[in-house]
Amino acid sequence: MMQALSKHVFYPLWDLKDRSHRLREWKRLEEQQWWSKRQLMAYQWERLQALVGYAGGHSPYYRDLFAANRIDPENILSEADFRKIPVTKKKDIRDHLDRFISDDYKKSSLVSAKTGGSTGVSLNLYFDEACQEKRNAAQLMADRWAGWDLGMKRAAVWGNPPVAKTAKQRLRHHLLDRTIYLDTMNLNEQSMAAFVDRWSIEQPQAVFGHAHSIYLFARYLQNQGVTSCRPKAIVATSMMLLEHERRLIEEAFQCKVTNRYGCEEVGLIACECEQHQGMHLNLPHVYVEFLDANDQPVKAGEPGKIVVTDLNNKAMPLIRYRVEDVGVFSEEPCECGRGFPILKHLEGRVADFLKLPDGGQVAGISLVERTLTRVPGVEQMQLVQDRLDHIRINRVRGNDYTQETDVALLRAMRETFGEQVALDIVDVTGIPQEASGKYRFSICKV
To answer: What does DSSP say about strands 422-427 and 442-444: parallel, antiparallel, or unpaired?
Structure first.
């Protein structure tokens, strides 16, 4: 009953009180997801042209950028025209933050956020309220793909969970958010045992959190023989979901995992549907490109640097923004019938790619995943490249660790790096988290 009241009464009333258009946008997205790809792309292009025109007139940064490159927003009539706009990098935002902000808005009136800086550059960001409402609506749509409906109580495996301090915050937590937290900044057997006890009382129907943190909790459930945690939906986000982690999570919870991809700068970029054949790109809200080293489009099936244009945020437009991730898109339609195209898989962040002596690169996160599935006795590992000819392997022993484990680990790594790169295994008890609670398994400092 509480779930039904939350969905059909409390959420609409709260939106009415806040004069929010979130639920209206959500219903629009629920319809748009079944449009044809051609219809969606026409709608997306219309929004893209409007955003570029707005930025050229109101964002000092883009006004200057367009002038310097002799770009007239009214003459952007094709994708080739659009690609004439230089790619925006994190450093551009860091160095010229205030010039990105539209002169239509006062900075003090905007919603602010800050990225965690896991790739070495922390960013301050600003959004208008309409943008936030649209982003929240996209999350609601993606939640339903996972089986997590509005008003459903959830268990969040998340770092630094919010604490309701005011009466309004406590009321919202009870009526709308309905979330219990397992703090990933304090993830140990005691905290996970306490969370299982709370789960048995609260009975959440959905799990949401960092992919690897959910994996650690799922592994605890398996090791302890806990079978009482049976959600209807699991959403893994914020970091790459490795396939061996997906398998263990689904086995422990007896529930499919929905992989989701987004970032603080632009919101939801892509999410799996119930078919789990890749992640649907959020076409109504973002324009996504996959580019090579020369900022030219790659072909379907080839890895490319992901560049995103946010179609929602007028307060601080981001056009052709490089999110520092690498992914592969597909032109194959999904069996679900939705018109949203597919991001087949992520290959990792640019900063996660390790360098080879011959000038090549290797996706560190894929290397970690392959090694973990092939070498018994390794529970967790992290690769840190501090020199072109040296990699430190932080290795956590698994229950089936033997003297042969490290020999096999080095042999597997040599297949990629040969004898030119020195490999040192460091025995550690765990992989450290970032301040956000996320984990990084591949770090290139070269």
So the answer is: unpaired
Q: Which two tokens stand for residue 76?
A: 């952007």
Residue 6, C-beta contacts closer than 8 angstroms, at least 6 positions apart: 150, 151, 175, 176, 178
Q: Give the Å distances, CA to CA, from 173 to 3, 11, 29, 151, 167.
A: 13, 12, 25, 11, 10
CB 427 within 8 A of CB 105: no
Helix, strand, coil percent values for the chain (each to nearest 5): 40, 25, 35
pLDDT in tens, 383-395: 999 999 999 999 9
Amino acid at 148: W
Query: pLDDT of 254-292, one tens digit each?
Result: 999 999 999 989 999 999 999 999 999 999 999 999 999
Residue 275 CB-density burial (10 A; 0-12 exposed, 13-18 middle, 19+ buried): middle
List, in order, residues 6 or more apart from 27 with CB less than 8 Å away.
none
**Side chain identity at residue 21, one-letter code:** H
How far is residue 217's CA from residue 188's CA, in Å, rounded to a whole number? 9
CA atoms of 242 and 264, how far apart (whole Å): 21
Tokens of 224: 């302890």
- Beta-carbon contacts of 167 under 8 Å, excluding residues fewer than 6 positions away, are none
Long-range CB pairs of 102-106 (<8 Å, 24+ gap) are 102/54, 102/55, 102/58, 102/59, 102/314, 102/315, 102/316, 102/317, 103/58, 103/59, 103/60, 104/58, 104/314, 104/315, 105/314, 105/315
CA 50 to chain centroid, in Å, comes to: 26
CB 89 within 8 A of CB 322: yes
How far is Cα 100 from Cα 63, in angstroms, rounded to an integer? 9
**Residues 214 and 240 sit within 8 Å (Cβ to Cβ):** no
In angstroms, rounded to a whole number, what is the distance separating the alpha carbons of residues 115 and 134?
A: 20
> If pLDDT is split at 50, 70 and 90, which confidence band does 39 have?
very high
CA distance 106 to 104: 7
